[in-house]
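Protocol step 4 of 6: structure prediction from sequence.
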Amino acid sequence: MNSSCADRGLGPPSPAALRAFSGSSGQRAHEVGGTASARGAAGNGKPGNGAGEPDQGAGDSGETPSRPWLTSLIASYIEDGAALLDSMRAAAARGDLRTLAQCAHRLKSSSALVGAAEVARLCEELEDGVGGVEDAVVRVLRIENVFTQARTRLGLLNERERR
């Protein structure tokens, strides 16, 4: 049976999820898990609330503001990344280089989003081409090892965010 990323239900993010993540739903950035100072509440990318004043939510308490969107993003990355790696492993084993490249592209994009730059780089190399099934299997194993390291670091970040 042919298993691809789409077969595993790994479709594109919903428009509502993207709006919540980007803060474009009209909510202030701190209402969706960041601070307006960090993202520019005026929508111009400049720190502050758009009125030339610092955001009231960006106090000097030394505490990290609660960012439920970040913990959700990391959890989704870890879950979806593991499923993509399963698909990549299966595609490499059966020599389905097209599906392998599609899954690598998706993992590359999500890895770049969460800052897993080495995973993204290795996926890009895989996406650019492989020298056959054996090469594909070796590359997927490398990506899997680096993904495991990134997953550990992101899991620690997630634990810190939950406190």
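Step 5 (inspection) to follow. Helices lie at 15-22, 36-39, 68-94, 97-114, 117-128, 133-162.
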